[in-house]
Amino acid sequence: MNGRKIGEVILDLKNISLSFGGVKALTDISFDVREHEIRAIIGPNGAGKSSMLNVINGVYRPQQGDIILRGEHHANMDSYGAAKAGLARTFQNIALFKGMSVLDNIMTGRNLKMKANMLQQAIWFGAAQREELEHRAKVEEIIDFLEIQHIRKTPVGRLPYGLQKRVDLARALAMEPQILLLDEPMAGMNVEEKQDMCRFILDVNDQFGTTVVLIEHDMGVVMDISDRVVVLDYGKKIGDGTPDEVRANPDVISAYLGASH
Amino acid sequence: MAFFLETLLGGLMSGMLYSLVALGFVLIFKASGVFNFAQGAMVLFAALAMARFSEWIPDWLGMENLFVANLLAFAVAVVVMFVVAWLIERLALRYLVNQEGATLLMATLGIAYVLDGIGQTIFGSDIYKIDVGMPKDPVMMLESVFEGGILINKEDFIAALIAALLVISLSIFFQKTATGRALRAVADDHQAAQSIGIPLDRIWVIVWCVAGITALVAGIIWGSKLGVQFSLSTIALRALPVVILGGLTSVPGAIIGGLIIGVGEKLSEVYLGPYVGGGIEIWFAYMLALVFLLFRPQGLFGEKIIDRV
Q1: Across the strands, what pairs with A14?
Q2: Interface test with chain A among B196, B202, B208, B210, by most A beta carbons within 10 Å
Q3: Do both A185 and A254 map to the same domain?
Q4: Does B194 contact A at CB distance below 8 Å?
Q5: From A176, which residue of chain B is nearest by alpha-carbon distance?
Q6: Which of A6, B196, B272, B293 is the most core-located residue (most Cβ within 10 A)?
Q7: Confidence band for A252, pLDDT divided at 50, 70 and 90
Q8: SS3 A25
Q9: Of the candidates A80, A98, A116, which has its C-beta nearest B197's C-beta?
Q10: Together in a domain, A82 and A103
Q11: A57 at the B interface (CB within 8 A)?
Q12: Which of B177, B193, B196 sits opposite A121 (nearest CB)?
């Protein structure tokens, strides 16, 4: 693969169980994520992939299990806490701020890094303005990186789906996260858009050293770009390993192809 | 022509005040999806605080200067409204995140009664006056253009100017600053806003603070015109039609809706009044709102509500 070095375990999930009423979404799932790697979570529809991501992101709190982020317990984190801890995410069905321009959307990603308080912003324009410009420079870098210069001022609601996905990624990148969580980044895209998205994910990982955790049900794409893959089915872990190992795993094959046991 | 202009200007000026109160509704609705029935109670509470502190402060400090006393009273009233905003978030809204709209609505009804009660317990329940030195005498304008000129109520004019200034500075704050951007982000999508590290609870306090300030300014303006009394809390209901007209989710809608209703009230009173026996001003706004509810329920600028069934 490329020159980046995969490091220590940065995120460790231990025996996570999550249920909604009587429905078990996740049952006793454990896996880890190493620094700088691209880690995929795959599985058929309803396997619990999105629930898993929402647990990592603090949207759902698991009834059982432990989340250890850089050696610290984080089981009771909410999504604001997750953002503060250096986790950024994108959404499967795009949760951009539709009324705002692409630029404003990405700028919101800088919110945690802004120091000027509201009073300064309202009254003492100098410092707040200077800060705004610094952040703007960073945001422009990201805009260049993702090749969306031409739509900078467009309200996101008007953009085609593929570009909205890219803006969603840009907003997450603006947070300069340590771990980037991608919820089906390629869902609903055509082949060309998928290739672009793959390239961006690999570049983010390579150039910024960002650890990537991604969910996808398109097997082909995932196998090409991931270092390690977790396979879920009906809320249980049925496989974990390098793409080649997973591909050879009989449980995984039967889950995907529905072959008889 | 001069008479028409005079009526029009009068309408625009009273409309500006409606806009201000409507803005309070819209801000809170956008940021938290709560229709805040307590807005009227906040207007009364703020006006009471202003009226009483402008009496008490000269007594406590033994000062004579009315202007300084008013300024101090205003500052104290602002702080009081901030505390109210913080308490509302802390004691009520925080526990109601992601509840049904109707639940939140009932909560704000409760808040309205609590505010009315506490306000009158602390500040008293008589009629108080606010005297911020507004000039009461009317002036003539444009005498060279029209015969007889246009008669303008100076007090209304200054009030409209203050309201307009506040509305403009709030719009700039929302469009240009990072906090404003965060507010708009929360208004669009709570979950996404939280996941990029925008603290919901803090944003809600800010929104209620801003709504508190609009309530205070409206309370001072109306209070100095009509006296600070219990009926102030129902006056905010006159902004309801404005919100329906402009759309609950649109800031420009609140402003333009307010102006339309202000102008409509005055013009219809003057030009239609003689045919139906007058008194149109009282019901015109509600009538207009009803028509809008029939034909364009999302208002002039609001988002069309599309529900998946």
Answers
A1: A66
A2: B196
A3: yes
A4: yes
A5: B196
A6: B196
A7: confident
A8: strand
A9: A80
A10: no
A11: yes
A12: B177
Contact between B194 and A83 using a beta-carbon 8 Å cutoff: yes
Task: Give a yes or no: residue A92 inside a domain.
Answer: no
Distance (Å) from the alpha carbon of B250 to chain A's nearest alpha carbon: 11
Q: What is the span of the domain harbouring residue A109?
A: 98-176
Question: How far A261 CA sits from the closest chain B CA (Å)?
Answer: 40
Helix (H) or strand (E) run with residue A28 in it: strand A23-34
Place of tokens 């039967």: A254
Total domains in chain A come to 2
List the alpha helices (DSSP H) in chain A.
49-56, 79-84, 102-108, 118-122, 125-145, 161-174, 191-208, 219-225, 243-248, 250-257
Is A109 among the domain residues?
Answer: yes
For A110-141, write each residue's pLDDT tens digit.
888 887 666 666 665 667 778 888 888 999 99
Q: Is residue A93 part of a domain?
A: no
Residues A205, A36 contacting (CB under 8 angstroms):
yes
Whether A118 sits inside 8 A of B195 (CB atoms) is no
In whole angstroms, what is the distance from residue B265 CA to residue B269 CA?
6
Q: Find residues 201-220 of chain A whose CB sits inside 8 Å of chain B.
A: none
Q: Judge whether A165 is closer than 8 Å to chain B, CB to CB.
A: no
CB A101 within 8 A of CB A65: no
Tell me whether residues B179 and A84 touch, CB distance under 8 A: no
CB contact set of A244 (below 8 Å; sequence gap of 6+): none
**Taking CB atoms and an 8 Å cutoff, what residues of chain B touch A102?**
none
- What DSSP state is assigned to residue A101? B
Indicate if the alpha-carbon torsion angle B82, B85, B91, B96 is positive or negative: negative
Which residues in chain A are contacts of B173 at CB distance < 8 A?
121-122
pLDDT tens for each residue of chain B, 309 residues long: 778 888 888 888 888 888 888 888 888 887 777 888 899 999 999 999 999 998 888 888 877 777 888 889 999 999 999 999 999 989 988 888 767 778 888 999 999 999 999 998 999 888 888 887 777 777 777 667 666 677 788 888 888 888 889 888 888 888 888 888 888 888 888 788 888 888 888 888 888 999 999 999 999 988 888 888 888 888 777 788 888 888 887 888 888 999 999 999 888 888 887 887 777 877 888 888 888 888 888 777 776 666 655
In angstroms, the separation between the Cα of residue B181 and the nearest Cα of chain A is 7
Q: Do A108 and B193 touch (CB under 8 A)?
A: yes
Last residue of a domain, one of A130, A159, A176: A176
What is the reported pLDDT for A125? 63
CB contact under 8 A, A114 and B192: no
Instruction: Render pLDDT for A144-187 as a digit per residue (tens, 0 to 9).
Output: 999 999 998 998 888 888 889 999 999 999 999 999 999 988 88
> How far is A196 from A160, CA to CA, in rounded Å?
15
Structure tokens at B30: 């956008």
Contacts of A99 in chain B (CB under 8 A): 184, 187-188
Average per-residue pLDDT in chain A?
A: 86
Is A175 near chain B, with CB under 8 Å?
yes
Together in a domain, A195 and A148? no
Q: Which amino acid is at B94?
A: R
Q: Does B121 touch chain A (CB under 8 A)?
A: no
Are A40 and A141 members of one domain?
Answer: no
Whether residues A70 and A182 share a domain: the answer is: yes
